[in-house]
Specification:
Strand content: under 5%
CATH architecture of the domain at 25-100: Orthogonal Bundle
Number of strands: 0
Largest sheet: none
Radius of gyration: 17 Å
Helix content: 55-70%
Shape: globular
Number of helices: 5
CATH topology of the domain at 25-100: Cytochrome Bc1 Complex, Chain D, domain 2
Length: 111
């Protein structure tokens, strides 16, 4: 038997699948983020001038970048070293922590 889903529902399931497969612990992510806070801030707002803000980024994106640093596919003098010490659970926890931070934006008042 073949299950046929409406296009929108199938697309939604494909988007949500990576997030449901990655079980993460926010409290553990917050604790592990203490090392990241030096450059990225505990709140994900960078404190170092060459570090990106990562608050509110998708957990999928953050995990992919950390895994790329860990594998050597992406290079950075500090991140490549830090990522070597992370296992998949660490990465999931960190990605979930930073993704869970709510970011707000204020538009400039330009007339």
């Amino acid at each position: 038997m073949t299950l046929i889903l409406p296009r929108g529902l199938a697309a939604a399931l494909m988007v949500l699948a990576p997030h449901t497969a990655m079980a993460a612990d926010l409290a553990a992510g917050k604790a592990k983020a203490a090392v990241c806070a030096t450059c990225h801030g505990l709140d994900g707002v960078a404190t170092a001038p060459d570090a990106p803000n990562i608050a509110g980024d998708s957990a999928f994106y953050l995990a992919a970048q950390l895994k790329a640093y860990r594998s050597g596919a992406r290079q950075h003098p500090q991140m490549s070293i830090i990522a070597q010490g992370l296992d998949d659970a660490d990465i999931a926890d960190l990605a979930a922590w930073y993704a869970a931070i709510t970011v707000t934006a204020t538009m400039p008042d330009v007339q």
